[in-house]
Amino acid sequence: MRTVSCKTYAKINLTLDVRGKNDDGYHEVEMVMQSVSLHDDLTVRLDTRGRCADSIRIRCNLPYVPRDERNTAYKAALLFFEQTGIENTGLFIDIVKRVPVAAGLAGGSANAAGVLHCLNRLCGRPLGRRELAELALRVGADVPFCLTGGTCVASGIGERLTPAPPMPRCHILIAKPPKSVKTREIYEAIDRCEIVRRPDTAAMLAALKSSDAAQVAQQCCNVMEEVTSARVPEILELERTFLRHGALCAVMSGSGPSVFGIFTDFEAAARARDEVKRRMRRTLCFLERPVQKFSPMG
Ligand code: ATP
């Protein structure tokens, strides 16, 4: 058995703008993405004795996460073997999930990126950065970012990545209400609504460059928030709670329904977390920080 492990980090959207649809019907976006310390633990094992040749077995601590070809980690592994022509002598993937599922935090995308990274290492790095990023995009639009991590502007359908100045030191409180939403439904709904406030990517980049958390917070904006919060009212309740405890901003991530708040004061963030845990018992809540020096591709 040969084994490689890695952490697969969640992301938040400091900004998210939907610019329209491309010719293939995919939504064109522009977003500033940030890796956060909330992560799953991923272990990838290759059976070198070939006793389970061609099999991909997945173990996950959450029983409702699919373990077959619907799993992003499975898809990534299958594509890797197809693309490289390397024989699958029997693959075992173990995922310990902490990142909430269907939450707007790209947990599944991060697992897929982790599998590509680990398999590439296990097999002597047959794929370069570019090839890995191309494979990543075939699994999902957020997977290329998850391979790179840190702070990036993502455009196109999410695959065009430009590194951005790192996020200033701060505390990030993330909460996931019990209800989930379907990403596709939110995109469809956004096509039908008029967007009132859009993020300003240039202003966000200037704010990041200033290294001032308050300026960054001021520019956080997600055009999907109105649509998702109409379906999940807890989003607004969480935002009010975060702001009452001194968050510099409280905004939804991705298509939701997770909400994040930026704090400079750890004690204030911890008080907000404690209130959420006390009053909204089924809401998951994590006190995290931005992750910068992260590149699973090494
Ligand atoms: P994104 O922000 O990329 O839309 P998300 O955080 O909203 O991602 P995921 O956690 O990736 O959503 O889950 C979306 C769906 O994918 C769920 O219905 C889940 O069952 C399924 N899924 C497939 N593979 C995985 C995986 N490895 N981890 C979590 N969910 C997975």
Brief synopsis:
By secondary structure, this protein is α+β, with helices and mostly antiparallel strands. 35% of the residues lie in helices and 28% in strands. Strands 1, 2, 3, 4, 5, 6 and 8 form a seven-stranded mixed β-sheet that branches. A four-stranded antiparallel β-sheet has the order 9-10-7-11, with helices on both faces.
Question: How does this model look, in words?
Answer:
It is built from ten helices and eleven strands. The chain is of the alpha+beta class and 298 residues long. It has two domains: 162 residues, Ribosomal Protein S5, domain 2, CATH 3.30.230; 118 residues, Alpha-Beta Plaits, CATH 3.30.70.890. Strands 1, 2, 3, 4, 5, 6 and 8 form a seven-stranded mixed beta sheet that branches. Helix 6 runs antiparallel to helix 7. It is globular, with a radius of gyration of 19 Å. The model has no long low-confidence stretch (mean pLDDT 94). Adenosine-5'-triphosphate binds next to helix 1 and helix 2.
Q: Bin the strand percentage.
A: 25-35%
CATH class of the largest domain: Alpha Beta
Low-confidence stretches: none
Q: What is the architecture of the largest domain at the second tier of CATH?
A: 2-Layer Sandwich
CATH topology title of the largest domain: Ribosomal Protein S5, domain 2
Shape: globular
Bound molecules: adenosine-5'-triphosphate
Overall SS class: alpha+beta
Based on DSSP secondary structure assignment, what is the total number of beta strands? 11
Helix and strand pattern: EEEHEHHHEEEHHHEHHEEHE
Give a quick account of the main beta sheet: strands, pairing sense, barrel closure. 7 strands, mixed
Q: Whole-Å distance between the termini?
A: 22 Å
Radius of gyration, taken over Cα atoms and rounded to an integer in Å: 19 Å
